[in-house]
Amino acid sequence: MKSNTTCKKSKNPIDVLMEGMYPRLFPENLILSPHLNEVYELALAYYESNILSEDELVENGAYFVRVGDRMTRHFQMCTGEPLRLPMHSSSRLRSFFEKNQFRTGYATHGLFPYRGKFHPQMIKALINIMGLKPGDTILDPMMGSGTVPIEASLMGVNSIGIDASPFCRFLTQTKYNALAISQKPLDEALKNAEDLFKLFSEAVGVPVSGSKIRNHSRKTEFSEVNESNATFKPDIVLRLSDRIGDVNRHVLDFLLLAYLDSAGYSERSKRKPPMEQFKAILERYVFVVKKIQYILDGSESLLAAADIQQGDARSMNIEDVCVDGILFSPPYSFAIDYLANDSFHLKIMGENIERLKANMVGLRGKTLKEKYLFYIEDMSKILAECARVLKPERFCTIIIGTNDSQLSNALDVPEEKVKGLHKIIIDLAQPFGLSHVRTLERQILGMANTMRHEYIVTLLKTCS
Ligand SMILES: C[S@@+](CC[C@H](N)C(=O)[O-])C[C@H]1O[C@@H](n2cnc3c(N)ncnc32)[C@H](O)[C@@H]1O
Description:
Shape: globular
Number of helices: 21
Mean pLDDT: 85
Strand order of the largest sheet: 6-5-4-7-8-10-9
CATH architecture of the largest domain: 3-Layer(aba) Sandwich
CATH superfamily of the largest domain: Vaccinia Virus protein VP39
CATH topology of the largest domain: Rossmann fold
Strand content: 5-15%
Oligomer: single chain
Largest sheet: 7 strands, mixed
Bound molecules: S-adenosylmethionine
Helix content: 40-55%
Structural class: alpha/beta
CATH class of the largest domain: Alpha Beta
Low-confidence stretches: 213-233
């Protein structure tokens, strides 16, 4: 008896290899970004190429460098003149930027290190795939270092960014303002870097080279100096103005961010004295501003608006049904202590870390089990809030990592029976009218012992 199923016949390898895989996935006139080497990236490129028009791909596409004979704006942003990193950059930094030239480090995304920072290229693609267009509004309720608001504004998409940490608000706002900051005072600041270093040292403290001892509970000398007199004196604006001319809030914040960044480096490494480190970082910061403004070429006023807030994702200060898309990454269930990471900066800002801690998702609870239960409770509230503020037929994408061996310990179940956090999130979201559409898996490089994968989970709001 003949079977009904059509049997696939073997093909001539010469024909298959000569044709290649890409023409089956992409139209011939689309040229993919170089260094695109992960499956999830190929998937995002595939969706982008199917969802966007050619004009949209040129203007806002993430994974293509050319459409026919037109270079994409993403390509220009990542490679546009001036191309070089400053001469002083370490070989490690140089190699990082080269390898990740199209993924990260462009525009102001590369300013200030932040753990768990998104690759902006991936965010750009997700904004496109969620169907957001210029003039729409996207929300990141846990914005961290602000990748979503900054990328959205470059794409003409308005944004609301929220984080429980006031340092994240400062960091994101400063990176956003830097897209259109005036360059003249920055050039003056570079010429007077030594004076500025002294001013900031007096105002917020002096870093002690190589004082950070990893995996050691002793307080660093740098922190000790500053925790005792951690007040940021407002008269610094006047004293800065004496040195470099008119200093507005944007310039002050930008210079302070460079100082804090350099202080962090000095804490971690003795390679350069703190003053040299500050000069090097400031040079890089000014370079970043010049590079993106060169690409924007006077169109800074067309950047979309970003409403950057300090707040709680579990009860957001936003109207019902007002955003066209949501994109965020929550902390892990046994979270990085973001407040401890930023304690130096938070103390300078006069913040009470213990009070802030009570609102941080992933930090509540003592035992692993308790932490897990609080986490689930908090994530459920956040999903309810997302459903409340999202318009119907719109997407909410959550990027979430899971650590099955820690969950197995916490819940006392064998690892193979653990339900990953990405699956738990899908179940938690369902009762709020957020239905699962697609999950993409992505490897986390460099964390092989603790967390190997994270998941890009896309949900659709199916009821109003
Ligand atoms: C994984 S990080 C986000 C990183 C971000 N995607 C980026 O590109 O930088 C998670 C963030 O959630 C924030 N967070 C924790 N609890 C929060 C809460 N209740 N409301 C708002 N943000 C919170 C943390 O401060 C942290 O910045």
